Amino acid sequence: MIRTKMKLLISVFMLTASTIAVRAADFNILKYGAIGDGTTLNTTAIQKAIDECYKTGGGKVIFPEGKFLSGTIVIKDNITLHFEKNSVLLGSTDLKDYRNLDPFTEGLGIDVGWALLVAVDAKNIKLEGEGTIDGQGSAIKAKHILTDTRSEGQRWGLRPFLLRIVRCDGVTVKDVTLKYAGAWTSHYFQSKNLHIEKVKIQSVGVAHNDGIGIDGCQDVVIKDCDVVSGDDALVFKTTSSKMACKNIDVSGLRLKSSQAGIKMGTESMAPFENIKITNCHIYETKNGGIKLLTVDGAHLRNVLISDITMEDVRTPMLFRLGSRLSVFRKNTETKQQTGTFENVIIKNVKANASANAQLMPPSGILITGVPGHYITGLTLENIEISLAGGGLAEHARQTVPEAIDQYPEVKTFGPRVPAYGVWARHVKGLKLKNIKFNLASNDLRPAFVCEDGLDVEVSDWKLPETTGAESIIRLENVQKVAIENIQGKFNAKKLVLVEGNSKDVSVKK
């Protein structure tokens, strides 16, 4: 009996020691021939370190101090890429050094998918540490255009993403810095259990530098990241109809962008649902603060965005349900019917809008479906927006194109909209509660225009001093509208102007 117990204890000890040895095994890329001089191509050496680590059951692949030039690197199961302080993974400027392991077509119709770091169908992977992944996007472009004479709109898709995660489960990206991608900075596709925390992104210099791209992913946490991007800073997409963006919690982000701060769509085939975004600061965006767009058949529903501040943003909010109906993975997908937009809440938002906007004079919020397809159950509550003003009397009667099948962008509805505050069209169950607008100059457009609306509630608005407008609120072809407690020093011919085939409009002061 004693000898049996001893054998058992020895076996347990050996197994534990073996486990500790495996866990402690780090695979330093220097041992596999990598040279951190910024000029030697290290693709083979780095991949060998990853492959050897994978064969042992996983562990850490260490990037020490230095600049390690590389083409496409494939991350495998149970691998942690650990970037030590002052380590840099540097993307090659030669497009021949990159591979496309999961090709697809993005929203403008360009074939894309090449990447510096990529994981496909992997489990339990991690990127961590104080180091940097630098794609050298501008240098790649400069070299590329020397031999590719096509227009930029046609050739950009060959440039590599910085990080692509494809159909993976259990992914952590923490503390690392992502810089200067050749195209999108980070793209997570049809993956589950993602944790993205304290990531810093500085990715500008070429077009299409999206920051964090979540494409048909589920069970996602994104927190405390700082994003400066040339394209949308935080963007949710569904380029395939087969997997929704679902169960996502975002908090504590700082977002600066040459496009939008927070965006859903344009690629929008599978649903966007059960998404919560809170406590974020959006600043210096040139094409929208918050933009929720479903135009390719997706159901966008059960979304909460709250406690958001915005500074110097062009057009703080755009909500769009449309019928573009594009297909992005043409070998496996088919065209869908128009989707839905329902049960979205935006609350506790304070925004200072840029005086130089896509539509001039600037407007605060654009909401529009298409005929027969209504944005339903949208609630905006506790919203304050400061705007430049400057709208003229003729601007108050601006006709806005339907653009039913067009790319959904603020400029699509230009050159301006007929309300300085909220312009809404094709809406049902719209609730606008405790809204405040500030104007730097007089605006002769209404604060609110609603066209083709049903069951609309407008309550507890605080409006700036204006004079000379035809009306403060204009309603066209609406039914069941309740307006209550509109406050301000405005001087207009009418508080509420009701036109067209409208009925059941109630106004209480």
UniProtKB/TrEMBL annotation:
Superkingdom of origin organism: Bacteria
InterPro entries tied to this protein: GH28_Enzymes (IPR051801), Glyco_hydro_28 (IPR000743), PbH1 (IPR006626), Pectin_lyas_fold (IPR012334), Pectin_lyase_fold/virulence (IPR011050)
Family: Belongs to the glycosyl hydrolase 28 family.
Name this polypeptide is given: Polygalacturonase
A GO molecular-function annotation: polygalacturonase activity
PANTHER family xrefs: PECTIN LYASE-RELATED, PLASMIN AND FIBRONECTIN-BINDING PROTEIN A
Annotated source species: Pedobacter nyackensis
Keywords, alphabetical: Glycosidase, Hydrolase, Signal
Segment forming the signal sequence: 1-24
Pfam families in the cross-refs: Glyco_hydro_28 (PF00295)
Keyword set includes Hydrolase: yes
Coiled coil regions, renumbered to chain: none
GO biological process: one example: carbohydrate metabolic process
